Amino acid sequence: MLGLAGLACSPAVLGGGNFGWVDGDGDDRSPSTRTVTLRWRERIVSEDVEAFVPVERAVAALDPIRDRIYVGSSGGELWAMNGAGGRVYTYDAGGGIAAEAAFDAQEGSLFLGTEDGVLHKLSAEDGHVHWRTEVGGAITTRPLLTEDAVYTITDDDVVTALDRESGEALWRYRRDAPEGFYISQHAGLTLSPDGRRLLAGFTAGVVVSLSPGDGSLQWERDTSLDLEPGPDGAARYADVDTTPYVIDDLVYVASFAGGTYALEIDSGTVRWRDEELTGVTSIVPASERLLVLSSGDLGLVLLDRLSREIVWRKRLPRGAPSIPVVASDLVMFGESMGGFVTVALQDGEELGRIETGHGFTARAAFHQGRGFVLSNGGTLYAFAVAGAR
């Protein structure tokens, strides 16, 4: 099997050296001496379809064993590329792509959601369509795969379970989204480690646990009850936009206006709430004890989940932070109106950035020292970080 270093590179190459995934660098240097090396870039959105204020949210799905990258864009095309940036094929999804495709390496399948409310099952090898199913409402988060089913949640607050082989709907669960103001980002789905609970957050501020088998409600927690009502009687920005994160017996979520919560996984009971940690749109683990939070109010925050103390906070001068990626002792994230930034996990010190003039809303995809991130201008950037995993 050819590694990435052995493949031809058709896009503009911005750095030399090995770009293989498997061999690794064996680098144990300190974070302050690491460098982010830009390897290549490829524009995947035609200038003809670029928005006046471009925003790209899609995340690359990675298959290092087969030397493939799968990434879509607002233009509605899914690109299959090799690790050197060469195009293998494209698939016209018919609607904008704002999420990562779910990739099943064993089956060789991609499950791709689109903003026009369609879930596509494709052959990862050549883009052949196995089925398409309309679920209603934009799909802007990665589908969740189990052995028998694929689960999606839409921006219209509908959770759908589909049969993996046929695409037929097995069950649906709907919450009514409130009228008024809320954040455009939507929470994704999480399956508990024991596989017994499907966890979701909704626009109205409700967090639920569902049975993966039939969609029955196990418990719900309405975080909007902790907010003061606005002039119209409804709480503003009550939505839960964070994909639930489970550790031990707790589920970590955040209400945009209500703060950050730890809920008991068996009942949804509030173990604690920090009403100062507002504006949070993502919660990402950095270790067993540390969580990285992206917040429109606070910037990037490293939180000790046991002591509930802020280890450090980094305010962003240009826009809001994207969902961060933690790689070894580094944190990488985008500024929606700035650059793609790398900071030290220990203290938040900035170590480097990529500037494009458009900003970065999408989360980066990262594996064994190699990363890929889509800019708001529609260009995919490939980079390497020595010694990071």
How large is the count of helical segments?
Answer: 0
* Distance linking N and C termini: 22 Å
Percentage of residues in helical conformation: under 10%
Question: What is the molecular shape?
Answer: globular
Ranges where pLDDT stays below 50 over 5 or more residues in a row are: 1-27
Radius of gyration: 20 Å
Spatially, the strands of the biggest sheet line up as 1-2-33-32-31
Q: How much strand content do the residues show? A: 35-45%
**Average pLDDT over all residues:** 88
Q: Give the class from helix and strand content and strand pairing.
A: mainly beta
Secondary-structure blueprint of this entry?
Layout: E1 12-13, E2 36-43, E3 61-63, E4 68-71, E5 77-81, E6 87-92, E7 102-104, E8 109-113, E9 118-123, E10 129-134, E11 144-145, E12 149-153, E13 158-163, E14 169-174, E15 190-191, E16 198-201, E17 206-210, E18 217-222, E19 245-247, E20 250-255, E21 259-264, E22 270-274, E23 280-285, E24 290-295, E25 299-304, E26 309-314, E27 325-327, E28 330-334, E29 340-344, E30 350-354, E31 365-367, E32 370-374, E33 379-385
Question: In words, what does this structure look like?
Answer:
The chain is an all-beta fold and 389 residues long. Helices cover 0% and strands 41% of the residues. It has strands at residues 12-13, 36-43, 61-63, 68-71, 77-81, 87-92, 102-104, 109-113, 118-123, 129-134, 144-145, 149-153, 158-163, 169-174, 190-191, 198-201, 206-210, 217-222, 245-247, 250-255, 259-264, 270-274, 280-285, 290-295, 299-304, 309-314, 325-327, 330-334, 340-344, 350-354, 365-367, 370-374, 379-385. Strands 1-2-33-32-31 form a 5-stranded antiparallel beta sheet, with no helix packed on it. The protein is globular, with a radius of gyration of 20 Å. The model is unreliable at 1-27 (pLDDT under 50).
